[in-house]
């Protein structure tokens, strides 16, 4: 079971922890942070698919990993392994939950559904 809420009801502290990690270059082996590609506000630099609530189809998931749809935590792991050239995070980890919570929050801000966080 993921320890974040894909509907966006996540504690502010978890989202803030995710934002820190999102900007942290030491998560990758190639000097990139998530924000290097996706923007420091966490909601720019995405394809149009990011507008949809998770789970949803993402071209990278289909093309590289054969996944029809991806959950937010799965998408974090795909980007950890492929563009970040790193090991996946522990599935039960706080770091993965925090990044997934932040990604869901960014998705909802992009779609105009944020609840003020
Ligand atoms: C080198 C650039 C790069 C880095 C670094 C990177 N990504 Fe990605 N990310 C991509 C690409 C490319 C896609 C796939 C877009 C597609 O297939 O439509 C993607 C897709 C995504 C999506 C899905 C967008 C959607 O359509 O829903 C999310 C969420 C995401 N990345 C989060 C992250 C997170 C979190 C990190 C850091 C752990 C990260 N990315 C690091 C390039 C990057």
From TrEMBL:
- Region (Disordered) location: 1-21
Domain spans labelled Cytochrome c: 13-107
Q: Does the keyword Iron apply?
A: yes
Under the GO molecular function aspect, what terms does this record hold? Answer: electron transfer activity; heme binding; metal ion binding
The record's annotation in PROSITE patterns points to: CYTC
Composition skew (Polar residues), residue ranges: 1-12
| TM regions (residue ranges) | none
Q: Which domain of life is it from?
A: Bacteria
**Keyword annotations:** Heme, Iron, Metal-binding
Has the keyword Metal-binding been applied to this entry?
yes
Q: Matching InterPro entries, A to Z?
A: Cyt_c-like_dom, Cyt_c-like_dom_sf
Q: What's the protein here called?
A: DUF1924 domain-containing protein
Can you name the source organism?
Vreelandella andesensis
